[in-house]
């Protein structure tokens, strides 16, 4: 079995606009024709990542471990449709919710790709294709770190995983350690929230980072970093009020698609709100973070920010 060298791919600019077409053989001949591909990183709830082993008949990086799902966008196909098709063909999965986390240009001696990067958390059955893959399994983060640079993983996967996952996780690890040191021995909750906001904002580079405190029947603006913000938010109103009402984290890839979104700034495009919960489950405050980019926040942000809020909760009660 081998790849069809006459398969037609779209040619695109770096924004993803289709500007032509070419065959697989032409795109992989060293011509450096930019063509789109889709990737899906599949995690389980423990944070392990699923990797596929590329078969020996592949014309690019045969026999190496790679992103769970990766494939070319066919001519006339959208990246979203291509992702659904590739996931179904390679892993036998149809019931998943992808989160788009970014795109970038990958270059090698043989090809030049515009990579659309997605992630999902999946706990269902994975049925890897016997025709498309040689093997597949979940790897711990430690296993991935130890394999990087040994020729076991594809260079594309190594670079992409560092960029979108390991670097972010490492930032959060250092950030959490910094926050532990900052709040040690502190008893003033305003001082705690102020420094936590500053640390998150400076380390992660978000557009707006701040706390809203529960005061009677509303959320009242607390310490924050960024442009001026709404000062009062009602219970169940907007993303913050909804997170308070539901007592759970809410991730919004596109704020314009969230019913009742409160637009404190027109520059905000995506948002995450994490409630700070007391031991008995009472919401003490919410941590609200906005980004100027769509789909900024993923499960890594969710888990790490929830850990930070759990860390400071005893000081806000």
Keywords for this entry:
six-stranded antiparallel beta sheet, 317 residues, 15 strands, alpha+beta, elongated, 30% strand, seven-stranded mixed beta sheet
Termini separation: 63 Å
Overall mean pLDDT score? 92
Low-confidence stretches: none
Task: Provide the structure class.
Answer: alpha+beta
Order of helices and strands: EEHEEEEHEEEHHHEEEHEEEH
Radius of gyration: 22 Å
What's the main sheet like?
A: 7 strands, mixed
Q: What portion of the residues fall into strands of 2 or more residues?
A: 25-35%
DSSP summary: helix tally: 7
Helical content stands at 25-40%
What is the number of strand segments? Answer: 15
Molecular shape: elongated
In a few lines, what is going on in this structure?
Helix content is 30%, strand content 30%. With 317 residues, the chain is an alpha+beta fold.
Please write out the topology:
Blueprint: E1 8-12, E2 18-23, H1 24-27, E3 34-43, E4 49-53, E5 65-67, E6 69-72, H2 79-91, E7 99-107, E8 112-121, E9 135-139, H3 141-147, H4 155-183, H5 189-204, E10 208-215, E11 218-225, E12 232-234, H6 238-246, E13 250-252, E14 270-277, E15 283-291, H7 299-316
Parallel strand pairs: 3-8
Antiparallel strand pairs: 1-2, 3-4, 3-6, 4-5, 4-9, 7-8, 10-11, 10-15, 11-12, 13-14, 14-15
């Amino acid at each position: 079995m081998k790849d069809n060298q006459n398969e037609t791919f779209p040619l695109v600019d770096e924004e993803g606009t289709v500007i032509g077409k070419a065959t697989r053989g032409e795109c992989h001949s060293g011509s450096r024709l930019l063509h789109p591909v889709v990737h899906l990183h599949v995690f389980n709830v423990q944070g392990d990542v699923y990797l596929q082993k590329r078969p020996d008949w592949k014309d690019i990086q045969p026999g190496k471990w790679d992103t769970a799902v990766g494939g070319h966008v066919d001519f006339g196909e959208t990246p979203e449709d291509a992702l659904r098709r590739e996931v179904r063909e390679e892993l036998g999965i149809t019931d998943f919710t992808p989160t788009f986390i970014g795109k970038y240009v990958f270059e090698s001696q043989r090809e030049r790709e515009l990579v659309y990067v997605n992630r999902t958390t999946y706990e269902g059955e994975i049925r890897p294709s016997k025709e498309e893959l040689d093997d597949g399994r979940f790897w711990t983060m430690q296993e991935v770190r130890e394999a990087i640079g040994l020729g076991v993983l594809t260079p594309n996967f190594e670079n992409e995983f560092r960029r979108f996952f390991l670097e972010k996780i490492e930032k959060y690890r250092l950030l959490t350690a910094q926050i532990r040191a900052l709040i040690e021995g502190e008893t003033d909750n305003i001082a705690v929230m102020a420094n936590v906001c500053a640390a998150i904002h400076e380390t992660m580079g978000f557009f707006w980072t701040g706390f809203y405190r529960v005061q009677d029947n509303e959320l009242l603006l607390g310490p924050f970093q960024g442009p001026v913000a709404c000062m009062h938010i009602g219970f169940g109103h907007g993303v913050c009020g909804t997170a308070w009402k539901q007592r759970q984290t809410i991730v919004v890839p596109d704020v314009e698609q969230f019913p009742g979104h409160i637009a404190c700034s027109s520059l905000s495009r995506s948002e995450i709100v994490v409630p700070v919960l007391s031991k008995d489950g009472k919401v003490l405050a919410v941590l609200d973070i906005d980004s100027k980019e769509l789909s900024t926040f993923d499960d890594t942000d969710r888990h790490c920010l929830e850990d930070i809020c759990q860390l400071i909760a005893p000081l806000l009660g």
